[in-house]
Amino acid sequence: MSHNWEEIYAEQRPKSKALYNEAKQNTAGGVGHDLRHTVPFPRYIDHALGARMWDVDGNEYIDYGMGNAACFLGHSPPEVLDAVREVIGNGLHFGNDHPHQVEWAGLIQQLVPSAERVRFVNSGTEGSMLALRVARAFTKRTKVLRFEGHFSGWHDYVGKGAMIPFNETVSAGIPAATLDTIKVIPADLEAVEAAFRNDSDIAAVMLEPSGASWGRVPLSVEFNRELQRLTQEYGVLLIYDEVITGFRYSPGGYQKLVDITPDMSILGKIMTGGLPGGAIVGRADIMSLFDFTGDPHHDRYERIHHLGTFNANPLSTAAGIATLKRVATGEPHIQADRMAALLRQGMEEILEEEQVAGYAYGDSSGLHLHLEAYPGSGATDRDAVRTNDPARLKGIPNEIVSAYQKNLQIRGVNILSYTGGVTSAAHTEEDINKTLNIFQDTIRVLVQEKLIARLG
Ligand SMILES: Cc1ncc(COP(=O)(O)O)c(C=O)c1O
Asked: What whole-number distance in Å separates Cα of residue 64 and Cα of residue 53?
């Protein structure tokens, strides 16, 4: 059944509709990224500036997607565009290291506690894949321990864990032998210790330290501290996936904020200031596996083989340095965090006013919303719907998620994925107030349509 909001969405977007009809004939799956798939068709974005984004039909959005959370300074920040313009005249790519790369690695080293050494890659997924290879080589063990709901890219070695049911493959085409190298457990310290005790072949535990999906399923600092203690006791490497939290939770990421230094970290998104790229960083003794020693046996069999045409290409390097220089001041975080806090608080007040079974939450510049399905849990107050269960927090029915997103979009708000988003240094109080009005209208529609529950 087509809902009223889907019809409005389609009427507002004739050019996107036509583009999608064409895309279906030439693009596998019709879109360039699974998250962009939506019914009845995706929007095609034309340009973006600050906290705003415009699609090809001229619809304006206050954006809480911010380039999949890469654009922390806002869209099109002048100093980043200038830095890219400055290097672009010299040629696009040389297949050799660029002098600025050394400066970029130095900035990362200075900001991120675990970055004794930096190795550049082309995406968060590549970083995740490479970090696991390094962990295996260093520990001479095979498996990775992961937590339910955590996402670390789309390669085969993280082929289960992110998606409900958490212990089943996320995709067709992943070899069973590869899936056997992944152990997915609840984020529970007793389960961690049991896994380490019962399986001496675990090379690494890799997690989003904030909790799955930039804190949708929150993890505490105490959990992280005790997890580190256990990894040290059992000789397992601790890998923080800071692809979203890195440079966002603080200039040095989550790890700097809470003063826990993992053995390795994966970085991306903000690090490259909106252009493709990423890095793995880690302890010097671990990262020495990349070194060439001149010993033919070592260099052929004992080091990490790693290539990548566009690693630390000049454009991404320029954008990354310009972004990290501002990140280093800590000033963008003050604005982004304040705006997210205002948004979360405003949403909480609206949910209270509308007596809806759900809650808004998040840390730093992150935003999440949990909504209980109609007829809901039967909860009589909003505290009763608070949960830490990944299956519930990541299991809001598709129908609700889709109705939530579409109702925001037809009114001019874009979020990152599911019911969550991020703010940037470019968001203003005016953006937040406008968003809250749209949020209230959206919640009322969802209640009216009996998609979400009122407290009962
Ligand atoms: C926590 C986390 N890890 C890894 C990735 C993968 O990064 P990329 O999309 O650059 O491959 C993402 C992407 O959203 C992410 O959120």
From this structure: 10
